Amino acid sequence: MENYYALNYFFDVNQRVFYGYVLVAFLIAFLFFRTAFKKQFSKEVLWHKSAQLDYAYFVISWFVKIGLIVPLLIGVNEVTLWMVLRLNELFGYTQRIRVAKELLLISYTLVLFVLSDLSRYWLHRLMHNVKFLWRFHKVHHSAEVLNPLTFYRVHPLENLLFGLRYALVTGVVTAIYIYFFGAGITSIEFMGANVLVLGFSLVGSNLRHSHIPFSYPKWLENWFISPYQHQLHHSKKYYGRNFGSFLAVWDRLFGTLLRGKKRNIVFGLPKEEVKHSILGAFLNPIFKGVKL
Questions:
Q1: Collapsed DSSP state (helix, strand, coil) of residue 15
Q2: Is residue 176 within 8 Å of 235, Cβ to Cβ?
Q3: Which of 8, 85, 191, 283 has its CB surrounded by the most CB atoms within 10 Å?
């Protein structure tokens, strides 16, 4: 349970706002985007009503997760065990394939990363395109200014869906590897974090929810989502583009990619009047009569 304690997020290498990731992001912004860095820490951004909601939401949502979300989540181990049993029932026990440990580690890490990213893309896209789900996801998109804590401005139902997604994808992939290669499967980690996720987190993931226009070279944005591409996704005009988390290949394959050419963008919801209240953020998606 302590993993869900709000302040622990800043010391957990698996959390977006781990202090190491935040410091690197601030350093990138300070060295290369001095004007935007000053804007990020201006009174207009730091104390905007939208930012104040982010701060309050970050703390209060922890209690909601503990009370409502965690008890409903299915664990990765449960999914893995169930899937292994089903594979054995359907196809019988099979002789384990012998593969060099290093190759197994690399392949499992890559396969899990790619399939997890693909599943995030489609769930994120569904959160936009299914009217019922958009009611919940627009809590995140109602942010009119961005900061690293905006990442956690997510309705509990969306947290539940993404938690189930993680358990299902990780559990199924792990079970398939166990079935063919035996137990003891693990990804390559450093300090307890997947090395690929850690790498992306260190190169500016916290700038995704910021006013720092950090884009990649054009060719690289065909493969990886830059912080600025995600900022475009948060704009009123382009919120139907760039659904990817780490990889841009899904957006490119399915026609939703928008590269990070500098544009005048305004964050928030299109054609909707937003009132930044903590009560509305939690209840409006459920009871339409309550305004955000």
A1: coil
A2: no
A3: 283
The tens-digit pLDDT sequence of the chain (292 residues) is: 344 456 788 888 888 899 999 999 999 999 999 999 999 999 999 999 999 999 999 989 878 877 777 777 888 999 999 999 999 999 888 888 888 889 999 999 999 999 999 999 999 999 999 999 999 999 999 999 999 999 999 999 999 999 999 999 999 999 999 999 988 888 888 888 889 989 988 888 999 999 999 999 999 999 999 999 999 999 999 999 999 999 999 999 999 999 987 788 999 987 665 567 888 888 888 886 445 5
| Strand partners of residue 224 | 247
Give the sign of the dihedral formed by CA 219, CA 224, CA 225, CA 227: negative
**Nearest alpha-carbon partner for 70 in 167, 202, 189:** 167
Length of the chain: 292
